[in-house]
Design goal:
Blueprint lengths: L1 H12 L7 H34 L15 H5 E2 L2 E2 L5 H24 L13 H27 L4
Antiparallel strand pairs: 1-2
Amino acid sequence: MRYAIRTHKSYAAGTEEGSNLGAKSEKTNKNLMTSAVIVSGVGAVFWMVPNFVFGWNYGTSFPEYGTGGYGSYLTLFGTYNPHWYLIPAMVAVGSATAFLGVYLVLRMRWSGFPRRLAVQNFRPVMITTWTLWVLNVFIGFIVYYFFAYTGTG
């Protein structure tokens, strides 16, 4: 958040010649964005996707995999869980966030990015990505509360 505000202020001040403030903040922003996308991607690949595919085993130890995947989140004993809708919401918001994050990193870092796919002003896309990420974290806390903490999913 701090670097996003600093970068915005630097761009507002201008990046004309003789001022390295905007270029320095832009480099910091690119590095932080790339790091965040990589760390989130690793977490998603090694934690979220297997958890969604294989599901939790609400047995004696926490966590254990292997109860049948996403179906175990949606139904229990042949009836829908009270908060089943949180799982598809989290998958949808998380997937959109990951897609936009990867898009932004490729757009910022890859000089061969296709012109027809490149937005000129990617600040609104960054704000949308950040907003979706915060929303996904919030949904994640709610999922944890209902499915793991209270067990009433």
